[in-house]
Design a protein that fits this description.
The chain has 188 residues and is an all-alpha fold. It has a single domain, classed as de novo design (two linked rop proteins), CATH 1.20.1440. It is 77% helix and 0% strand.
Length: 188
């Protein structure tokens, strides 16, 4: 009778541990997929912004063809954005893009005819909308990463999460937070 109780307790503990591992693993998988989805949303918005840049450059070039350095910087920043494969590379590209956009809009301020151009105004509005979407996507991604990292680091998850293929994820952080505190000023 005593051995039956011991066997029952051992089986009960094994079942409890098994259920805990199963639930924890499924929760980590769910969070991992959510973070991947959020990263995908960021890349979609970064691509959308990168697709707007050539149109913006061509519109401004028509009025300020002699500003080639500004156009080169914007083109380099666009290439860096499209080539960013992870949050740290994207953050570096984001710094370049913010600086480049500030330059191009500074050039645009010198040309009143450009500021009145319907094409420029439409691109400007689309860019503001895209910047807002990038910021929202970054918040969603970083929230998912926070939740994932917390779950991975909590005890006892930390004992087996890495063995199951789950680790901490990188936040989408920017080296100079003040550079992206707000969308680039594009109102004239």
């Amino acid at each position: 009778m005593e051995s039956l109780i011991i066997i029952g307790v051992v089986l009960g503990l094994a079942a409890a541990v098994g259920i805990y591992l199963w639930v924890t693993y499924n929760g980590l998988v769910t969070l991992n997929v959510r973070v991947d989805e959020a990263w995908s949303d960021i890349t979609v918005q970064l691509k959308r912004r990168a697709d707007l840049i050539p149109n913006l450059i061509e519109t401004v070039k028509g009025y300020a063809a002699h500003e080639s350095k500004v156009f080169e910087d914007v083109t380099k920043a666009r290439a860096a954005t499209l080539g960013a494969g992870d949050p740290s590379a994207a953050a570096e590209a984001e710094n370049m893009m913010q600086s480049a956009l500030k330059s191009i809009f500074a050039v645009a301020e010198a040309y009143p005819q450009l500021q009145a151009s319907q094409n420029f105004l439409q691109l400007q509005a689309e860019l503001v909308d895209t910047e807002d979407k990038i910021q929202a996507s970054r918040r969603f991604y970083n929230g998912g990463v926070r939740e994932m990292n917390t779950r991975v680091l909590l005890f006892p998850n930390t004992l087996f999460a890495k063995n199951l293929g789950f680790g901490e994820r990188d936040f989408f952080e920017v080296e100079d937070p003040s550079a992206i505190a707000a969308a680039p000023r594009v109102q004239f």
